[in-house]
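Good morning C.,

I know you're traveling, so I'll keep this short. The sequence:
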Amino acid sequence: MEQPASVNSNPLQRLDGTGRCVQIRNWIGFWLLGLCNNFAYVVMLSAAHDILEKQESRNETASTSASLHVDFQVGNSSNSSIYDCNPVSTAAVLLADILPTLFIKLFAPFVIHKMPYGIRVLFCAIMAATSFLLVSFSSAVWMSILGVIFASISSGLGELSFLSLTVYFSRSVLEGWGSGTGAAGLIGALLYSVLIQAGLSPRVTLLIMLVVPFTMVVSYFLLLVCPPSLPQWRTKDTEYAALVSEDRQQLLDSSDEEEPESSTTAEDQPTGPLSFRERLFVIRGLWRFVLPLGVVYLTEYFINQGLMELLFFHNIFLTHAAQYRWYQTLYQLGVLLSRSSLHCVKIRKVWILSVLQTLNAVFLLFAVRYLFLPTVWLVFAFILYEGLLGGAAYVNTFHFISKETEDRHREFSMAAASIGDSLGITVAGLISLPVHTYFCSL
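The tokens, ready to paste straight into the viewer:
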């Protein structure tokens, strides 16, 4: 009996299109999605502070700046600490930003499969646009905070959705996604600073940046070459999904020279959506990936939010605020470089990166306590190294989850594993608050 033509057709043709041009389009598409997904999150804090600064001048209140202050400036210290401290640690801002994302990543993987990808992308773009509008037109503190929360919701839901989306494409798009998310930090901060330096007001700058959520929509709907199996506007048809599952596995395997570790085929697996018990089983298997990633991000953001503002050198060519801005810039540069390196270097043992990042955090903790580093250039080197470790841990974790997870579990696994970085960041914020208080009391 002759099989249907749809089954006999080449999976590369049916699922990912043909030719190098399609591969490039998908890579660029995921790069732009990564950039747009993290862009609002990166820009929102600095923008919120600038807007609130105007509100402070009107209301003559000093407490507002402390609640949403990302950067800090010389002379803000309210005590005589040798560390030139802010009254409130930047970790407080970090917690305000990460908690909505953490909540989404904890619960969304169990229900998000009921929402088709097209609707998810539109929702994320609307949330990002709303965050820009709320902060730009805010007339009260709560409006600016709400804008930051909307940016966090957009970023968190977008990350787990786009990571899940990669399973429908060649595995090489993970490199594009990782590079785009790394570029968001560097490009977002630089673009905002350049526009403000050019004389534009924060409100006008944020309104200009409404082009970013629009670019996300264009990248997804017009640039990507989506496969027929992708649940675009309605939930996945289980029978068709089972039919294309084996072809999709062949597509993923063809994009990597190494042989997959799992030998399970689609014919050996049950069809239909994963049950709750199956999802819990998959999560247990993901801890070997999630735990090292969480440790890397815990120590990384402990450095960024607990120590970085205290690594201040007196009487050099850079002010305290300028030193902090350069720390952040070099960190983002390191993240961009390492998140773009997956094509060249793959690191299977991510736990090694967590050990190295922990050692880095411990060293810088002692550097803050005993002030033995002689020059700011050494701090620059350590911060760049920190960004390289963090970015490498991110892209390699999701690369090997995609590679080693069974096809039936892959989409859920990519979404569920995204909790690792957010959980680590949250714990880092909680630890950084008392550490900041301790050092500033000295």
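Safe travels,
E.
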